[in-house]
Amino acid sequence: MKLITEGDINSYYLQTLCMLFFPRAKFSNTETIGPDTPVAIVKVSSDEKTAYAEASLTMGARTVIKYHSEDFSDNEPKKNVKSIAASKAFFEAATEFCKYNPPWGILTGVRPTKLAFDRINAGMTKDQAVKSLRSDYLLYPKKAILAVDIARYESRIIKNYTEKDCSVYISIPFCPSRCAYCSFVSYTTKKLLSLIPEYLQAMKTELMHLSKLIKELGMNIVTIYIGGGTPSTLTEQQLEDLLSYIDLCFDTASLHEYTFEAGRADTITEQKLKSCKVHNVTRISVNPQTLCEDILVSVGRKHTVEQFYNAYDTAVKSGIPHINTDLIIGLPGDNFNIYSSTIEKIVEMAPDNITAHTFAAKKSSELTVSGSEVFMDDYRDLAKCVDYTQIITKSAGYVPYYMYRQKNSAGNLENVGFCKKGTECIYNVLMMEEVHTIFAAGAGAVTKFTKDSGEMIERSFNPKYPYEYLEQNREEEYKKLQKKAFDFFADTVKQ
Fold first, then answer.
1. Nearest Cα to 406, choosing from 343, 457, 361?
2. Which range among 61-70, 232-241, 311-320, 331-340 shows the weakest confidence by mean pLDDT?
3. pLDDT in tens, 124-172
C-alpha cells in the first residue's frame, strides 16, 4: 500500500488505520503503484481556529475523497487536533471505499477503557461518556457502551484498594510445546526445559527479596498471579516445592485472590491441582482456545478436545473455587459456525470466568513468520463472533468486567473477560488499568510501581530470557530494585 501525507500528521498512526481496512498491507516509499495497489493521500492544513484535512483513497480507476475539520481547543495540543482531523478524514474515505465500518472507529490503543475512565472521572454520566466516545473516536454505539460499562464495573473494584495494596506476579516462561500463534517468551526445547530446576532456585531468591521489600515499604499483598508460558509445565514435585516456598514468603491465606494459570489441558493433573488447593490457590485457568479438533491440530495446540474436557472436570473436582477458560476468536480456519459452537459449549459448562480473545497476528509467531494466511477473509464474520460472545454470555448471567486489545488484532477488535457477578479476576483489573503496584519475579517479568491513581508509573524489567535471568546476581538486582522503590515511594515510606 502507498501512503502519502502532507502536513503535521502522525504517519505511523495512519498506517495502523490503513491496516484496519487492508490487513495485509505493507508500506514502502519505493513501492511500485499497480492497478491493485491502494493509494492513500492525506493532507492537513490549518488556520488559527481550525484544522482542515483531506483524504483520498484510490485503487485502479476508483477514488473516494473525504474532508474533515476539527476546531482547536485549550485542552488539546494543536498537533493532536490535526492528527485527529486527518484520521477522521481517512477513516470516512476508507469506510466508503471498502464498504466496511470498523466498530472501534479511529481508536487503535490497547486500553479503550482508559478513555472511558477519563470521562467518568470528569463527572460525565454514562450517556454523556458514551456520546463523547462516539463523537471523538467514531465508535459504534455498542462499543462505546461496552467501554463505559466495563470502566464503571472496574471502578467499583478499584475503589476497594489503596496505594498501600500491591500484587505479586510470578513468571514461569516454559511450555511443553509452542503454539503456532504464540509470540510469548516461552521455552519448549529439552535443553531449555532443563533450565527449570536452576530457574526455580533463582526465582526463590528473588521472591524472598520481594517479600522483604514489600514489608520494608509497608505494603499489603492482595493478589498473587502465577502466569507463563504454561505454569503447569512444572512437574508435580516442582510445583509443590514452588507453592510451598511462596507460602514461606507471603501470607497466602489472607489474599483476596490467588491465581494459577494452569493453561494447557495436556499439562494438568489431579495432583498438581491438589497442590494448588492445599496452598490456597483460589482461581485457575484451563484454556481450550477452541473446541474444534481440526483447528487445534492446525495451530499446533498439543491437546485434544477430550483432554480439555477431562482437565476441566479435574479442575471442578479439585475444589478450587473459580475456573477461567480462555478462547481465541478467529484462529486460522475459524468461522462463525465453528466458533459459535465452541462458545455455546463453554457457556453450558458454566465456568466462573470466560475470556474471549480476538486473534492477533504476532510478528514472531510461527504463523506470521511462515507467511500463512492468518486472518478471516471477512472481518464482518469475525465481528459477528465477538458480538455473539457478548450476547450468549449475557443471556447466561455473565457480565463483561475487563477489556484490552492487542496490537495487530484482527479487525482491531477487543479481548473481553466475562464473569459471573462476584467472581471477577481482581488482578486482571488492577493490572490492566495500571492503578496498582505489581512486584514481579522471573524471566520476562516487569515490576510496576504506581501512585497518584496511576498518574505516576515506573517500571523495572527483568531479562526476557531464562539464561539471561540466571546470569544475574540476585543480591545486586535486589539492591537496585530496592533503591528504585524507595526513591519512587519516598514521600510515603518511612526510611
1. 361
2. 331-340
3. 999 999 999 999 999 999 999 999 999 999 999 999 999 999 999 999 9
Rounded CA gap, 259 and 267, in Å? 17
Closest by Cα among 111, 235, 120, 85 to 174: 235
pLDDT at 379 over 70: yes
Whole-angstrom Cα distance, residue 56 to residue 93? Answer: 7
Cα–Cα distance list, 188 to 173, 176, 230, 311, 472 (Å): 9, 5, 10, 21, 22
* Inter-residue contact 406 to 358 (CB < 8 Å): yes
Per residue in 35-54, pLDDT tens? 889 999 999 999 999 999 99
Residues 6+ apart with CB under 8 A from 461: 446
Cell numbers for 492: 510515603
- Spacing of C-alpha 374 from chain mean position: 19
Spatial distance between the Cα atoms of 403 and 143, rounded to a whole number of angstroms? 11
| Res. 459 pLDDT band, cuts 50 70 90 | very high
| pLDDT mean over 341-357 | 97
In 3D, which of 54, 84, 431 has the Cα closest to residue 225?
431
Q: Which percentage of the chain shows pLDDT scores above 90?
A: 75
Q: Taking a C-beta distance cutoff of 8 angstroms, is the pair 207, 241 a contact? A: no
Nearest-angstrom CA–CA distance, 129 and 464: 39
Give the alpha-carbon dihedral of 273, 276, 281, 282, to 10 degrees.
Answer: 20
Phi, psi at residue 450, to the nearest 5°?
-135, 150
Query: How would DSSP label each residue in 194-211?
Result: TTHHHHHHHHHHHHHHHH
Taken in order of first residue, the domains within the chain and their CATH numbers are 1-101 (3.30.160.100), 157-477 (3.80.30.20)
All residues at 6 or more sequence positions from 80 whose CB lies less than 8 Å from its CB, including other chains: none
pTM: 0.91
pLDDT for position 453: 85
Partner residues linked to 358 by β-bridges? 329
Backbone angles phi, psi at 259, to 5 degrees: -110, 135
Cβ(320)–Cβ(277) below 8 Å: yes
Q: How far is CA 226 from CA 257, 284, 291, 420, 441, in A?
A: 11, 9, 25, 22, 10
The DSSP letter of residue 291 is S
Query: What digits encode the pLDDT tens for the residues 356-377?
Result: 999 886 555 455 544 445 545 5
Which grid coordinates belong to 104? 472501534
Question: Length of the chain, please?
Answer: 495
